[in-house]
Amino acid sequence: MSISQTGDIRLDKHLLRKKFKEIRAAYSLEKKGKLDNKITNRLLNTWRYREAEIVFCYVSFGIEVDTRKIIETSFQQNKTVAVPKCVEGTREIEFYKINSIDELEPGTFGVLEPKDLQERKITDFSQGLCIVPALGFDVKGYRLGFGKGYYDRFLSKFSATAVGLCYSDCVVRRLPHGKYDKSVDILITEKKLFTINT
Predict the structure, then answer these.
(1) Nearest CA among 113, 120, 70 for reference residue 93
(2) Rounded to an integer, what distance in angstroms lies between the CA atom of residue 163 and that of residue 52?
(3) 129 — phi, psi (to 5°)?
(4) Do the Cβ atoms of 54 and 82 come closer than 8 Å?
(5) Cα separation of 135 and 123, whole Å?
(6) Looking at residues 106-131, what average pLDDT do you find?
(7) What's the rounded Cα separation, in Å, for the pair 86 and 74?
(8) Given a cut of 80, is residue 111 above it in pLDDT?
(9) Ramachandran area for residue 110 (φ above 0: left; ψ -120 to 50: alpha; else beta)
């Protein structure tokens, strides 16, 4: 898939977001479920996931790649699971350890979030695996999110392994990005695993 560039990075990103949303919205529930399963199984079979003791994972919502099986499998394998919570009044996210999906409640934008339990807040991001959401990626691992900047800020200070999950229809050769944007280390689609940084 190729992209056209207008010369205005903000407009380019707006047009791409619109296109990726349309692609995802057109998937039937059956097709989306099959794609999600393939992506999930590809992730679960990586050595990076198998060796990770802590999994930082977004809680999927709407047209995002489904992460429920990833979270449940991590519980079953006795991994520490931490999920994000938006910090009110900022564009920052914090991660909190959870022991069950049932501990989540609707938060910012209607997304399920952990309760604000300070004793469960994770502050050490030097180890583990972070599973990153996005509307689209390019083959170099740069992402296009929903435009709020939460994960851009988080990834700028995250030093362990970041993995992007995406449908192959939403992966392009090159996305517009700034010099401070950070690529993921691994990109997984239903068709392929891209190792970006090792």
Answers:
(1) 113
(2) 12
(3) -130, 130
(4) yes
(5) 27
(6) 86
(7) 22
(8) yes
(9) left
